[in-house]
Write a structure and sequence with these properties.
Helices cover 23% and strands 30% of the residues. It is an alpha+beta fold and 186 residues long. The protein has a single domain (33-184), classed as Umud Fragment, subunit A, CATH 2.10.109.10. Strand 11 and strand 12 (183-184) form a beta hairpin.
């Protein structure tokens, strides 16, 4: 192997090494793929959807109501849910209606589901913040209340309690697979 060939090989190896380091940094600190596993976010997200999670969202800002977030639920499980309650708020559901500090809040992402319900059917069972694990009167600073969009089939704050901001991995912003669903997450 000549000196020129050796230099060319070294340049290629160096370029691939730099690309690998950049990819690792991006995946660890900026963006990460995640796969939806289960029906808890139907109809917004479907089982098997591949999403991009923006990991910078909450290191540079605060969660907002209705953000769809990924959080570390247990040592081995990550969950995808929607932020419903923010620090300092009291949250309650009565008659399929969200109340924040006793004011009704529209949930446009549930409208189609609620319109399909027949009489005497409930989509979100009544509860108040103080009924959840922890028994809080308001959501403490550094925590959020999350629910799945498929309210009858979701392990969320009603069972897990409030979610610490420290456990938030990031905000889902884009569906990258399957092709017919590519686009921003609503």
């Amino acid at each position: 192997m000549t000196g020129k060939q050796r230099k060319e090989w070294f340049d290629w190896i160096k370029a691939l090494g730099i690309a690998a380091v950049i990819a690792i940094i991006i995946r660890m600190f900026l963006f990460s793929p995640v796969i939806v596993d289960g029906p808890s976010m139907l109809p917004t997200l479907q089982n098997g959807d591949y999403l991009i999670v923006n990991k910078l969202s909450y290191s540079m800002g605060e969660p907002e109501r209705f953000d769809i977030v990924v959080f570390q639920a247990t040592e081995t499980k990550k969950y995808i849910k929607r932020v419903i309650g923010l620090p300092g708020e009291h949250v309650a559901y009565r008659d399929d209606k969200l109340y924040v500090d006793e004011k009704p809040i529209e949930e446009p992402f549930l409208k189609e589901r609620l319109d399909q319900l027949g009489d005497n059917q409930t989509y979100t069972f009544d509860f108040a913040l103080e009924d959840l694990p922890g028994g809080n009167q308001t959501i403490p600073e550094g925590y959020v209340l999350v629910l799945g969009d498929n309210r009858n089939n979701s392990t969320d704050s009603r069972r897990l309690g409030l979610i610490s901001k420290e456990n938030l991995i990031g905000e889902t912003q884009f569906i990258i697979w399957p092709p017919k669903r590519i686009g921003p997450v609503d």
